[in-house]
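We treat protein structure as text, and this decision shapes the records that our systems exchange. The tokens are whole numbers drawn from a learned vocabulary of local backbone shapes. One such record is reproduced below, unchanged from the form in which we store it:
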Amino acid sequence: MGTDIRDAKGRPRVAITGCGVVTSLGRGKADNWAAITAGRSGIRHISRFPTDGLRTTIAGTVDFLNVNPYSAPALTIAMATAAAEEALAEAGLARAQTFPGPLYLATPPAELEWPQRKQLWDEMSASDLQGYRRLLAAAREHAHADMASLFQFGSVADHLADKFATRGLPVSVSTACASGATAIQLGVEAIRRGQTQAALCIGADSSVQIEALIRFILLSALSTRNEPPEKASRPFSKDRDGFVMAEGAGALVLEEYASAKARGAEILGFVRGCGEKADDYHRTRSKPDGTAIIGAIRNALADAVIEPGEIDYVNAHGTSTPENDKMEYQSLRAVLGVHLSDTPVSSNKSMIGHTLSAAGAIEAVFSLLAIRTGTLPPTINFDVPDPEIPLDVVPNKARQAAVATVLSNSFGFGGQNVTLALGAP
């Protein structure tokens, strides 16, 4: 299939011509990949807001981008912009006046944060009734227009679409922790349908805010191993106790293979297949029998027309939560069967934490880098193996290996699951 412009199902092949990334480990692929393959953690104590009295006081925060005045949407825009600029430069499209396709953005739900709420409150009367009337008057008069615009769900996508002059209306998607992979899937499907020859797919999330942290604490979803922070995330280990919140952005430029070759673009890899499957079992938990996750993985293999034995590496969802890690293992075993024992599986979240809506895009970038460099990133903090999860997790140190095909898993709250199959050029 090296020079075929169509895949085994007769659809246009979808090439990756550029990618970019921002995480708590730094800005750009070079710094991130150097840290990831060295097994370095970006998880640290939270300094953005007070954490006194909270059971969890750590996260993978991005503190090095200058965002003033600070807000979660503003940081999301900054991270997404940085990742997109790197991806467009690698694709040779940085100097183009317009991007030749649409924007698909994975982003979390938007809500006013405490600083903005306090600003509104300070401008109200001490009387609740009078304050309520003033708030209604402010809404009628379009006061605080900048604030209202910034905290709309589509605001981040609107900013990015304007900056990069993407075509058509941008699409914002929120499928929980599968969002980043969903954005990529939407781009792949649009190219296959012939609706566009290119797509800019971004996942970005800056949800490390006090309210979000408290909500996850109340769900008992987060690790409480605060000391030392870099030891907290322990995917697939017997002593794992929850995930670590994190933020970041990943961006990919997808192009129809024939179009990319015609303009002389370097082909970094291919999105060979996408699989999704959802269930309605619970607002946060996946269906106990794993059928939705199993279905997503199987659908990705079927979409890519590849067999279980062709998978060289799995970039796991691997959150470090007791239930999720075990279910991912059982699902991989159900699909890959006897081949699983010979298939390396590792989790980037052991080093960067769980970047939520951005995870699928960020981990797709790292999966592509594994293909291009022949290096499997490790699962750090793997000191106490779980006998119920007998995986080759590439423990603690990176490994050299020939990698042609990677599965990248993204499983979200509410039973939203997406698996991507990425391949070498």
